[in-house]
Amino acid sequence: MIGAILSGGYGKRLKPITDEIPKVLVEIKPNYTIMDRQILDFKYLGIEDIYVLSGHLGEKIEDRYGKVHDGIRFHYLKEEKPMGTLYSIRNLLETVGDEDVMLRNGDTITDINFEHFRKFSKESAFGMTMLVTRMRSPYGIVEMNGDQVTSFREKPILEHYINSGLYYIKSSIREIFFNEYNGKDVEITVFPEIAKRRLLGAYKEDSLWIGVDSEKELEQARSEYKGREDTSFGYKKDIFENDRLGITEYLVKDDYSATITPEDGNLLRILSGSGIINGSLKESYTHGTVIKIEKPVTVKAQQTTRLEVFSN
Description:
This protein is an alpha+beta fold. The protein has helices spanning about 35-45, 60-65, 85-95, 115-125, 190-195, 215-225; strands spanning about 1-5, 25-30, 30-35, 50-55, 70, 70-80, 100-105, 110, 130-135, 140-145, 150-155, 155-170, 200-205, 210, 230, 235-240, 245-250, 255-260, 265-275, 280-285, 290, 295-310. The longest helix is centred in the first third of the chain and has 12 residues, at about 85-95. Helix content is about 20%, strand content about 45%. InterPro entries: Mannose-1P_guanyltransferase (IPR050486), NTP_transferase_dom (IPR005835), Nucleotide-diphossugar_trans (IPR029044).
């Protein structure tokens, strides 16, 4: 399996930032770009080759990552003029041959369990799997009883799913991408055809997902990344109160482990999820569990776990 990133868009809604750099190189914290985050996701999966499908200012991406970066080999397929995602993916599939491909849009950030996504995709009968996420209303919702307004809900999560821009494409369906279509984008050409053949699967997971398509979404991503460090197990995030470190929040994805030491704090509180402590089934935890940290504590998540560490 190889990784691939669609990074050829103009990023018009992020101008003037994208006048000088492609959207994938926009920083979500100092010296840490959207693409840096995506590369880490691939690295932690053990992917050794990443194909960058670039266009606008694609040379800036090559300047930053070169041919080898952080132990990963980079390959660049650059369009000289916009040709659409169908052309980009056809070019990719012709280049990689019979490899399965994990492909993602270059402007998305997500905390899903990528190992679970890969396992679900490989073991399913579908030729392609798409990450879907529940849609948040862009507006507040007015609730009524007849013609009487009863309450308001501020931009709630809706019972509708959207395409999240992450795909696992098996080599077995590559020929579908080379059919004749009337259009340039896979979302309105190839994907409906794969769905019609009942070969398109949906992967759902209740995790952070941000599509960085505007200044508002960029600020959301930057707010999320204040004090945050991405890790192989999830992330750790320092939260400050009055310019002093208050607590450190951890996200530990299911089937992953994190070790917390007394230097991090002397108390650990589970906010959600379940698992075991120090490898012992006798020391399980659930929501609300509080653990005193007198020596290193290893938390192994059986369900995705959020916890906080602090000093009393």
